UniProtKB/TrEMBL annotation:
Coiled-coil segments on the chain, per record: none
Protein name (Swiss-Prot/TrEMBL): Dienelactone hydrolase-like enzyme
GO molecular function per UniProt: hydrolase activity
Entry-linked Gene3D superfamilies: alpha/beta hydrolase (3.40.50.1820)
InterPro entries registered for this protein in UniProt: AB_hydrolase_fold (IPR029058), Dienelactn_hydro (IPR002925), Dienelactone_hydrolase-like (IPR051049)
Keywords: Hydrolase
Length: 216
């Protein structure tokens, strides 16, 4: 695992943000914004940042919101824009920028992919498909057709018929976008993939393959 570091970053326009990042050991393939789950940058987010760096990506997680103030749509976009500026400052080309999110961060990653034009985006287990997951975040089916970044959604349905139907609704909505999209559903797996190592490994490989295919 690559070591994660945390620093405060301030843009030329005065906007500041705390970032947790990890650098690849060898040639840098591109830059990935990692959007964390509810609350703050957790150990799960740090492991994801470190694991992506081990695959050759400069990976960075902006600290958005807190346990007392959940992330909102405007916060997500502002933090992502600042983090993208940090990546550009670190010599990442614009066509090699992507975003990935886990849990509520997965929800946020789809929002970013619908509002910003990036090379690729991945959502893992993003909530709020038919109704908003957090204040200021839209229902995902309402914006999936507006995706402007190639987007992969990875979902477990918990063996629940309602969740299965929700994921299929999102698949249909995303298919209307003018960019490449794909939704992978793992029947019976939990959305965090913490009890199904086979599904977790497959989801990880699909995530890497998506970035490999679109960030080059």
């Amino acid at each position: 695992m690559r070591q994660t570091l945390t620093q405060d970053y301030e843009r030329a326009d005065g906007r500041a943000l705390r970032l947790t990042f990890a650098e690849p050991e060898s040639a840098q393939r591109g830059g990935l914004v990692v959007l964390h789950e509810a609350g703050s940058v957790t150990d799960t987010a740090r492991v994801l940042v470190s694991s992506l760096a081990a695959e050759g990506w400069l990976a960075v997680a902006p600290h958005i919101g807190s346990a007392r103030a959940p992330m909102a749509g405007a916060d997500v976009l502002a933090a992502t824009d600042t983090t993208l500026a940090w990546l550009v400052d670190h010599d990442v080309r614009a066509d090699l920028l992507g975003v990935v999110g886990f849990d509520l961060g997965g929800t946020a990653a789809l929002v970013v992919a619908a509002r910003r034009m990036l090379g690729a985006a991945v959502s893992v287990g993003g909530h709020g498909i038919s109704s908003p997951a957090s204040q200021g975040l839209p229902a995902l089916v309402d914006i999936a057709a507006d995706l402007s970044s190639p987007w992969l959604g990875v979902y477990g349905d918990d063996g629940d018929d309602f969740l299965e139907a929700e994921v299929e609704r999102l698949r249909e909505a995303a298919a209307k976008a003018e960019v490449a999209t794909n939704v992978v559903r793992y029947p019976g797996a939990r959305h965090r993939f913490d009890a199904d190592p086979t599904a977790a490994e497959d989801a990880w490989q699909r995530t890497l393959a998506w970035f490999d295919a679109h960030l080059r």
